[in-house]
Amino acid sequence: ADSPFQRAGAQVDVGLDSRGTLKVCPSAINPNCYGTNARSPEQVAPIWTAPEELSAAQCADRITSTAQASLAGAEVEERQELSDGSRYVRLGVDGKWARDVVEVLVRVPEADGAGCLVAYRSINGLVKYQYPLQTARRDGGAQKERMESLRQRLGWRLRNYSDAE
């Protein structure tokens, strides 16, 4: 009764899970997802490190303003401050077939002199199936491209990759 086709037509499951982390990319239903909490290797993304002088609130503001300036149709749908001072932001953005969802979770620094850690997920808002094969159509890596472009505009590093950049 509950097929991937029925679930694909539903709205994207957004927000934080019961552990306070971003939800997993649903690779069985929607292959067009790229995030730091993914079970599928091709969907896994590295966490970003923000400059150490920025607070979690400032990081969230900078991500929001950069997204609104650089991503087509970017609009804030939800902003939330968590009990530990972390920030969650959800944006709707123009996608290939419909409105896509970008979620960001900015964690307060783990230690003095460290920057905030930024987890994220970019997911296609509508899954299209290719008939007659009944396989989900891929968006050509648009989710990964979107998040890499945003990180480059911010000028932030990938966590533990500072020597490579």
TrEMBL record:
InterPro entries: DUF1499 (IPR010865), Thylakoid_lumenal_17.9 (IPR037734)
A family per Pfam: DUF1499
Domain of life: Eukaryota
PANTHER family attached to this UniProt entry: THYLAKOID LUMENAL 17.9 KDA PROTEIN, CHLOROPLASTIC
Record's protein name: Uncharacterized protein
Species lineage: Eukaryota, Viridiplantae, Prasinodermophyta, Prasinodermophyceae, Prasinodermales
